[in-house]
Write a structure and sequence with these properties.
With about 300 residues, this protein is α+β, with helices and mostly antiparallel strands. About 40% of the residues lie in helices and about 20% in strands. The relative contact order is 0.17.
């Protein structure tokens, strides 16, 4: 009898140690297990990546990654009915909501850089973008050096604004930098002649053109001013949860699923405004990323 009780106590002790080890490995997983739900970020208008479609349903390339990670978490925790709590975020709120652990996961169009890594961690890069210019076809602006004595609008408070100001000063471009609160406002400034060009990540610019009244009137031009890596944000220094995110993304790349998602959301018609096609081809950088997944930022 004594041996049996001792054995039970030892088993309970081992189980307890196992639980503690899991908690230490991933506080995010322990939080999810305790609450019975995972809280993920959604966006209204990150076209192609994480957006609300014409049926007010969340969709997109990054959203599909979110769903795959959720499935992996369900399997890891043995909770097939794990609930998903969707929380609407914006560029202004998303980082803080992950940093303060309101959000467990945020996959949309968020740049991974060393400055932001002071607050949050990132999973493997899932998309590579870079700031370019939107201009009217026939414009004398074809690249950055053509901005001399021209006005260029950029979203205020973004990494693009900081980069543009630094390069404008360092390279002596002589551009007049204007600020907008959001991309649509910046596009309107170009459309009405208040600005000669708009600057933002190329995927966003293609989205503005696709949604415009006269898509044939506009084009995206210029080299990448700098490459940027989009990644899923998660709680800082949570190795266990990051491993799940990284393995999920690497698996999607290895299986070819990620390339199929790029085609679906960036080269085919999506259900926004009755149907638009962003027309973004798969870049050589993306092809290389699919072969060699990594979580390295460019800055």
């Amino acid at each position: 009898m004594y041996k049996a009780i001792t054995g039970l106590l030892l088993a309970a002790s081992i189980a307890s140690v196992g639980t503690v080890a899991t908690a230490e490995e991933s506080p995010t997983l322990e939080k999810i297990r305790a609450k019975g739900e995972i809280t993920v970020g959604i966006r209204e208008g990150s076209l192609g990546f994480n957006y609300l479609d014409d049926h007010n349903e969340t969709d997109g390339y990054s959203w599909q990654i979110t769903l795959r990670v959720v499935d992996a978490v369900r399997e890891k925790l043995g909770m097939p009915d794990l609930a998903v709590n969707k929380l609407m975020v914006s560029p202004a709120t998303r980082i803080q909501l992950v940093a303060n652990q309101t959000l467990d996961l945020e996959c949309s169009s968020t740049t991974n850089n060393t400055e932001r890594q002071k607050q949050v961690s990132y999973g493997n890069t899932f998309y590579i973008v870079g700031p370019r210019l939107l201009v009217e076809k026939g414009s004398p602006i074809s690249n950055w050096t053509d901005l001399k004595d021209k006005s260029v609008v950029v979203n205020a408070g973004t990494t693009a604004e900081k980069l543009l100001r630094r390069m404008n000063s360092d390279e002596g471009w002589g551009a007049n930098i204007l600020l907008s609160k959001e991309a649509s406002q910046g596009f309107m400034m170009v459309e009405t002649g208040r600005a000669d060009a708009a600057m933002m990540d190329d995927t966003g610019l293609f989205g503005l053109i696709a949604r415009s009244k006269e898509p044939e009137r506009w084009e995206v031009t210029g080299d990448f001013l700098r490459k940027e890596a989009y990644g899923c944000m998660l709680r800082k220094d949570d190795a266990g949860f990051k491993a799940i995110v990284d393995e999920t993304i690497a698996g999607m790349m290895a299986s070819g699923e990620m390339e199929e998602l790029q085609k679906k959301y960036f080269q085919e018609t999506i259900a926004v405004r009755g149907g638009i096609n962003l027309g973004i081809p798969l870049s050589d950088d993306m092809k290389e990323l699919y072969k060699n997944p990594n979580d390295r930022p460019y800055d």
